[in-house]
Amino acid sequence: MKIQALRINLEDKILVDISFHITSSLALVGESGSGKSLTLKALLDMLPSSMKRRLEIDADFTLKAGKTLSLVPQNPFTALSPLTKIKKQFFAKKERVLELFEAVGLDAALLERFPPELSGGQLQRVVIAMALESKPKLLLLDEPTTALDPKTKSMVLALLKKLQKKENFLMLFVTHDIASAAQICEDICVIKEGKVIEDGIITDILKNPKELYTKTLIEANFANRKFRE
Q: What value, to the nearest 5°, has the Cα angle with vertex 160 and ends 154 and 162?
């Protein structure tokens, strides 16, 4: 799918003016304040009433949150009601929920538990299962591994890559963490102050960034890690 034009205005000020193409999995990368979160909210149609959105897409589906479009949020601990059993927080039929629990590697017995009884990794897998219950065409990932330890983070990223093949959805990974994005995304779109400054195949840009801003982001991400092709 192509986002041919996405413009977000606050009165006369243009906050975001970008376009990008998701062929399979795209990382939308930038520092805080670059426009990542606004882009995510615009796709979900969740912008504040003070902001205006202009969106043109070329796709075989209409963006509709909870239907063709789903979100995996940053923090699984705040995404679920702590006083409600896991099973009561799904809307899909039991058969679909059990199918998803198996797909994300969770025991069905956890459906009878409350969120505080699960680990961070288990909760994130529950949230991923919830995001997939409507069989979305596009899955939005909002820094989904920020609250996880390194081992659990790698497990969740590998799981998302596996699920994408099984469930056949497009993926937009909104993050500042290029190292994590490189594990599951084919392409990258780097934004600064609401505009695209560089995009392309993620492995190519990691090896040969053209913009100083991109190079700085990469160096910050891989300061203590070696990039593996």
A: 105
∠ at Cα 199 (27, 214), nearest 5°? Answer: 85
Straight-line distance from the first to the last Cα atom of the chain, in angstroms, rounded to the nearest whole number: 26
Closest CA to 30 of 139, 147, 189: 189
* Residue 146 pLDDT: 80
Taking CA atoms, 2 is separated from 21, 54, 195, in Å, by 4, 14, 16
pLDDT value at residue 74: 87
* pLDDT tops 80 at residue 147: no
Determine the pLDDT at residue 223.
62
pTM: predicted TM-score of the whole model, two decimal places: 0.92
Domains of the chain (ranges; CATH) run: 2-213 (3.40.50.300)
